[in-house]
Protein 1
Amino acid sequence: MQHRIIVLGAGYTGAFAAGRLAKRLHPDDVQITLVNAEADFVERVRLHQVAAGQDLKPRPFAEMFAGTGVELRFAKVTAVDADAKTVAVTGATGPETLAYDTLVYALGSGWTDQGVPGVAEHAHEVASRPGALRLRDRLARMDAGQTVTVVGGGLTGVEAATEFAEARPDLHVALVARGGLGDWVSPKAQEHLRKVFGGLGITVHEHTDVVEVRADALVTADGRTLPTAATVWTTGFAVHPVAAAAALETTDRGQIVVDRDLASVSHPDVYAVGDAAYAIGDSGSPLRMSCASGIPTAQVAADAIVARLTGAKAGRVPLGYVQQCVSLGRGEGLIQFVTADDEARSGSLRGRFAARYKELICKGAAWGVANPTYGLPARRRRLAPAAATTGSTVKALA
């Protein structure tokens, strides 16, 4: 019988992993099912561009995976039972239970209100396509001179603020940062950030904590009230809640604890990749939630699965960092070179060249997902006899 591999989530990591597995395993021996709620790929790293009014190239999964042998299942994952090796989903035909032999968990993360009052009711997010589209509609309806305030001074917040300011110079754009503006980059890079922000007319509230979000204002920890017509919340991510209820060993943040092969330490037939995984990089530090972590973890997991099932030897893909790529609107950018554990080095690229560099990175990531099997060895490995399993793939719930 075929070995049943289910991949949950078709973001950068899940789609990449499914394609790599399809290219490296013989279709007579495995059945690979990719489960995702939406029918086309979402370029999450560009959602601030969507919110600013830009349209992205459609990437339907049916076209991306045509001819690969990957079965597509468009459904929402509602539960995982790691002990029973089943996944509960709800799709167009109702609830179903999918049985697996190997599971790749790539459900990723979404936004979080960090427990701050008023965020859920009054703030917008750019961590999902629906959220970006809602914000897009809100910005389109804003009048000249009104204020849009981005809360969060990390990569997402910086990119969103500069994108909005460039696309809508008639609006007043503000950024609220808990630390200093760009205090995670080198001094020259930080200087460049300040120059770009100044040129775009963005107001920056540094070393400021927001303790409440209202419909028309933000309340800060030092008692100030900052008027705003729209608030964009970018203070961090929360992982999908399914893993914590799946009998898998997770951290207090809900990430699945994995070994160097990205296999769950409590259930070795489950591999977690991307934001869903609590993985330790080669430097000894946990990997951060990011696309830069996601693709390497997906490659490691896919290669480890192939090695386990076929008896082949997996290569060792590095788990660490080289750079942080930041778009500052369409014409400016910042490439901060970092150590393997993500600490800023002195070197950086700035300006238009950095903007083009970042654009190539984004295009390359999307192209790699849209062409998941390109460039891999044509020979598909047969499974070792011990990997053969039995059992039906799908059982309808009564």
Note: Residues 291-310 form the longest helix (20 residues).
Protein 2
Amino acid sequence: MLTPKENFLMAAVEHKKPEWVPNEMSDVIMVGGAFESFENGPAGGGLDGFGVTWHATESAGGQPVPGGKPVLDDVTRWEEVVKFPNLDEFDWEGSAAMQFGIMGADRDQRVVEYGIWNGQFLRLTHLMGFENALCAMLEEPEACDALFSAITDYKIELVERVAQHFKPDIITNYDDIATERGLFMSPGTYRSLIKPHHKRLNEAIKAQGIVPFIHTCGKCEDVIPDYIEIGTAAWSSAQPMNDIAGILQKYGRQIAVVGGYDTNGRAGLEAATNEEIEADVKRCMETYGPYGSYVFMGFRLVSGSDMMAFLGALAPINAAVEKYKKR
């Protein structure tokens, strides 16, 4: 019998039908992400390594959000204005020990996945604000391209340190380029301005012997073929406003889908009942599970930032997964 790690990798990396539907929220040791103060500011809010102010939230489960006056108001002046974090000042060994202490370190049984938050597009929006960033991409594409390149250079330096200190199986680049209705930009703009930098980051991850994933919330199905072309092994956190079944049927041998749970609907609410949660887990297992190359991922946002409250909100989801996953 396969270990949870072997079963997960069979679906997410080898793009085969596993023995049972893996569960991202139980089969994976998740590190990085929120623990990167140089990317998201200190706990409780403050400045990140780029000089962007972050605020903790109650409504988003304590997740920080950028706010305040934009750091960059003219993208053509980015070289004069934008400063990058000094990654050598971060306590990598201490952070790795702390995170594995919290999340667990059973590498033989579970996959280690490092999340690099604030991808190339998102970092531009954090520096400029969404409206100004989108206008800049239309009005000053050459300057945006140069800034994206510099951000990617920085991300590659980050990957090198992550590889040394965390030795993950997977690195996920978090770049939310879509809303629930579609991409923030045209597919053509994505392909000309962002895709080359996603590709270069993927190549750097692979050069370290690590598998690249991409996290994109929202309706991004138009660029799934592009994610495949640049060597992305899996797409998370796939939401059901996309044709997930159609994507698995058409592209399942080339890219895995991680997600499926209706985080935007009733099942994703703090007030969701156990019956609503179980019904949506069952829908995912029955609709997407038969294709293979599928990993379930589901969570609910809870008020505040208490870790125990978040884990408590996951418990009925994980219980339903155990009930409906097929062995």
Note: Residues 4-324 form a domain with the TIM Barrel fold (CATH 3.20.20.210).
Protein 3
Amino acid sequence: MERLQKVLAHAGVASRRKSEQLILDGKVRVNGKTIKELGVKVSSTDKIEVEGVQLEKEQKVYYLLYKPRGVISAVSDDKNRKVVTDFFTDIEKRIYPVGRLDYDTSGLLIMTNDGEFANMLTHPKFEIDKTYVARLKGIPEKDDLKKLERGIKLEDGMTAPAKVKLLSGDKKTGKAIVQITIHEGRNRQVRRMFEAIGYPVQKLSREQFAFLTLHGLNAGESRELSAHEVKLLRVLADTGKRV
């Protein structure tokens, strides 16, 4: 279920704000009933009309993007910086990122126009694993990494237990490469977790989302997810198990 104004915006009827105004003006009907209030949620089976014209159901699409550093995980930016949809100029559908990666973080990002699917993959209760590789300033001790494995207190609360592995450490440069897997998606969470144990992140990349990887892609490249991959992601989010 998605909010009506969001469905209208994603279908290309108008911007989110203008879609809200269409609703308030009584120009939108759902299953024959005129809607004049915001907050109404609709499903993919509901019949939606705008000013007497039925909303066509848009074909759902799903892409995997290798987001480069220095790109905003959004469909637009008021500072005119590059955004992830700039890599899909040949796609007519209004796609958007599932969750986000920080401006300075590269890696795997799913793009779609399926709001229900996006919610399933980003809601914490579904516990989808996301694996990152971080280059740190300093080489953490085992006890430091165990703090992350148990969960660590941040300003917005305790984190869930993480899976952490030291991949390499260079005493000459004082840098380390660490792999970390989490299923939460708080703002700048991985960076804040490492900062909390005293090892700032210098470079960060999301290498895996559930079973999806960046294999075969370079930064800025993308590929369409197969129907089977989409099905596996739905099952994983719904049951926590792969099929």
Note: Helices lie at 4-10, 16-24, 115-122, 142-150, 189-196, 227-239.
Protein 4
Amino acid sequence: MKERSSDLIARDITRSILGGELKIQESLQSERDLAIHYKVGRPTIREALQRLERDGWTRSRKGMPAVVNDYWKQGNLMTIVTILQHEEEIPDAFIIHMLELRVAITPAYFRDAMENNKLKVISLFAPFEDMNDTAVTYAEFDWHIQHRVAMLSPNPIYLLILNSFRDVYIRMAEKYFSDSTHRAASRDYYGTLLKWILDGDLQQAEQTIRDMMETSITLWKQKMNGGKEG
């Protein structure tokens, strides 16, 4: 499906912001000048500007050109997604931020799902024993578990957050699981977690999840630091 002109223009302006050609707090050109530059009508420019504002990149000013936001402070979830869509290689530091987000939300939606749909959660582990020892397989299984468990939580916000990061999550997971020690740690983790769930000890299951999320951060920091702690 062909992209709309307004989407292409919004993407081009986003690239200019990320590339530093447009600075934070700098004004964009007027609608008229943008229309001339992109050779489109002003309604198309308005659509592009509305998208940029919706996704946290700019803010409108009555009677004046839009201005570039400090997107790390004034952006939103879509701002992050767009940043990563422009990155061919996910930055190592960003993986740390994503892993820290997992610490904050994963135990919560697992707890909700286990309390409300325990048997369905257990069924999600069926492919576990037959997984091939590859980064792609582990990444796909990890996404499968996280996404399905969030779906089983009665709180829909968790699923909306994960859905926003689907492609980025899998790319990040493949990079993380490219290390065989990370795959081994994950295999031990899922085996232990399944045991606690089968035993009905949801408190231990939740603690196991939290501990593994913290361990993932430590393992990744060690990888970034050449295998050393710190």
Note: DSSP finds twelve helices and two strands in the chain.
